[in-house]
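Usage

Read records sequentially. Each one opens with the input sequence:
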Amino acid sequence: LSMFRLMMEYTSLQQQQQQATISTRDEDNACNGKTQHPQHAPRKSVSFAPRVNIRTTLHVNDFTDEEYFNSWYQQRDFQIMRMERNDTIWKMENDILYYRKDECRRGLEYRTEQGAQQRKINKHNALHVVLKTQDEQFKAGILDEEEIRQIYRKESHHCAEEARALGETDEKEARRISKQSTKRRKS
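and closes with the structure output:
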């Protein structure tokens, strides 16, 4: 039965590969009646890798009690994660360098007191300019959604740039780790 399921999954993957690339932007725009100018955004697409790795796994119904229990986080696991997160945040707030190889600050920036305050200020400022613009438009008897969008984007631009820079840093780190992993497998 599990070999049959494996063959069905493999066949499905092969069929997906043959269909190759699917454009999502054109489909989205067709549904909502919008047209997108080419200079505004790069075309989004989905593609499939030419080489597929398949691993057989047990179905959850075939797990032993121990395997089933070990497959899910337990209350103690969540407590440990919370303690480690809080420890890392404390180090961030106190400018203490890492002492464990597995520690990572990514995603915890807004959990520090300073980060939380900055996030609150960013949200407040963006909300303020949007509501102010809506109020002005209401008093003038107009509705210009594009102006509201532009004002919001201008107010939140620095947040988007910061997020983009963090994403680029993450990408470089992921590529570095991937290269190291590839080198280890080859040697």
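Summary fields computed downstream for this record:
- The radius of gyration is 24 Å.
- Residues 17-38 have pLDDT under 50 and may be disordered.
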